[in-house]
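pasting for ref
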Amino acid sequence: MKKVAVIGYGGQGAWHCAQILKSDVAVLAGTYDIKENRREAAKENGIFVYESNEAIFADSSVDIIVVATPNDVHEDLVVNGLKSGHNVICEKPVALSVDEFDRMVDAANISGKKLSVHQNRRWDIDFLGVKGVIRSEEIGKVIRIESRIHGSRGIPSDWRCEKAPGGGMILDWGVHLIDQMLQLITEKVVSVNCVNTHITNQEVDDGFRLELIFESGKTAHVEVGTYNFIAMPRFYMQCENGSLYLTDWQQKAHIAKLTRWIEKDVTPVQNAAGITKTMAPRDHLTLDEYDIEKPSSDVHNFYRNFCDAIDGKTEQFIKNSEVRRVLLVMEACFKSDELKQTLSVEI
């Protein structure tokens, strides 16, 4: 069993503590938070509270340090954790720039310790369902994927709505959806176009719309909105032999699979002020429609994998090279929005 200390006892830090308390591969050593009320909350939950971050770094009995703090202090805590001889898990986004992340990776290489980023949305069942359909080629090869998260409450009224600590939706939800998209389409990204929105917040983006073009010509749309009172589907995917539609992350994916391309006699449908055969819906003779079962998922496999990687039993599931690609895309998003143009890239 690996001994784990958590820096930060906010929403995500408390979540990590709760997960570790019921872990089959790790035990919780304790936590520390710079806010007194959060330290008191941890004590009330029966968790040991360290006197400082330095006290955690000095605890040689700890195998893993989890960094769950605002984004702007990740680098300092991660590097110090690695230098003090600990393996480190950092919450996403791991860094505010690629340069910051490179310094963290350098520190890991020098120390000989493991660094991992908690990209927990790789265990979301909606994403896993789409990934399974792509891998099976059940409806052929991918042409285009659209991925969206829509809400209507704006940005949370904490540090996430401020620029200095690393707020905004690209850094909050975008890091997840971009990571997922680069897992679904593993080709090189050659084009990035991003438009940020500022409906409820002028300091940071409260949403964005991102278009990616990949080396083979596949395309992807990634969108986060916090002022959408009717949400668009979580996933929509066009493939060579059909389409996939997934309403939200709790629902089954719906498949429409092409069985025959040609219809001898298409009945025209009334459309606005005229009739159309082109847009006439298909029938059961040429299209097979069905739902796919939701896949099983266990978020604690992240911890199991990292503990095994520390022991040299396996590779890290979330690779630092993959994390770096996501950061490169996010940097391109900010630049594309700033310049108001499409960027040609090689990511």
